[in-house]
Write a structure and sequence with these properties.
By secondary structure, the chain is α/β, with parallel strands linked by helices. Helix 2 links the parallel strand 1 and strand 2. The protein contains 5 helices and 5 strands. It is globular. Helix 3 (about 45-55) crosses helix 4 (about 65-75).
Length: about 130
């Protein structure tokens, strides 16, 4: 989270909030990285409400699920907001994926791909991963 805080809170006068939605909130909370005051946990009480809240965000840090993909596509993507996804979501050599998935069909070219190891750096700089 520190990586994303550093990246998005460059303007000290602008308050940034992160919204966490997950089909397994308890598992996500056990990670211990979503406990700060700038993280709002959406408690899965209403999927439609969660969808609407996330769609209104300026950007999206995307996981591999279709819920997040549709939120990104219908929300931030339509307003030229930043959508970030991790490069290791799909194992392209797995028998289910090999020859079946074209990443360019799943991720629009203006969405930013980052490698998990990149978020450990103190100064965020997205590098495009081939």
């Amino acid at each position: 989270m520190e990586y994303f805080r550093h990246k998005y809170q460059k303007n000290k006068n602008k308050k940034v909030r992160f919204y966490l939605a997950s089909s397994d909130i308890q598992r996500s909370m056990k990670l211990g990285i979503f406990t700060d005051k700038d993280v709002v946990v959406l408690e899965n009480e209403d999927d439609v409400n969660d969808f609407a809240v996330l769609m209104s965000c300026d950007g999206m840090i995307l996981s591999s699920g279709t819920f997040g993909w549709w939120v990104s596509w219908l929300g931030p993507h339509q307003r030229n907001g930043e959508v970030v996804y991790f490069s290791d979501v799909f194992n392209m050599n797995h028998s289910i994926n090999k020859g079946q998935i074209n990443k360019e069909d799943y991720y629009p070219p203006n969405w930013k791909q980052i490698a998990p190891e990149d978020i450990s750096s103190a100064e965020p700089s997205f590098k495009i991963v081939p």
